[in-house]
Amino acid sequence: IFISIALILGDGLFNFVTVMISTANSFHKQLKNKDPGLVTTASNGGASSSSSNRNMNFEDRRRIEFFMKDGIPLPYAIAGYVAIMAIATPILPRIFP
Q1: PANTHER family, from UniProt (predicted)?
Q2: Which of 54, 56, 29 is nearest to 40 (CA)?
């Protein structure tokens, strides 16, 4: 039973680290380019949406613009991650004694 718990925790830790690295890279690219509208997606091979806007029709551009206009500001996103981490760190050991 200890091996299965170790595998589950190891897989969770791996996924957590992978997501955090991906998020950090995205934040770094956004800060480096100083372009708040820059969004990278895996579906178009990592190309930015601003460079692929030329190839989209008007309706697609309008739909993406409407969807992206109410984004969460970067400082609030970082504060949210830190707050969730601060809450989860002392609570998780109590859930799994």
Answers
A1: METAL-NICOTIANAMINE TRANSPORTER YSL7-RELATED, OLIGOPEPTIDE TRANSPORTER YGL114W-RELATED
A2: 29
Could you tell me the residue range of the domain that residue 37 belongs to?
A: 2-95
CB 38 within 8 A of CB 49: yes
Task: Give 87's Cβ-side CA count (13 Å radius).
Answer: 5
| pLDDT at 19 exceeding the cut of 70 | yes
For residue 24, what are the β-bridge partners? Answer: none
Q: Rounded to whole angstroms, how far apart are CA atoms 38 and 48? A: 6
Helices (runs of H) and strands (runs of E) counted in the chain: 4, 0
Q: Is the pLDDT of residue 44 over 60?
A: no
Number of domains making up the chain: 1
Higher pLDDT, 6 or 50: 6
Length of the chain: 97
| Distance, CA of 21 to CA of 30 (rounded, Å) | 14
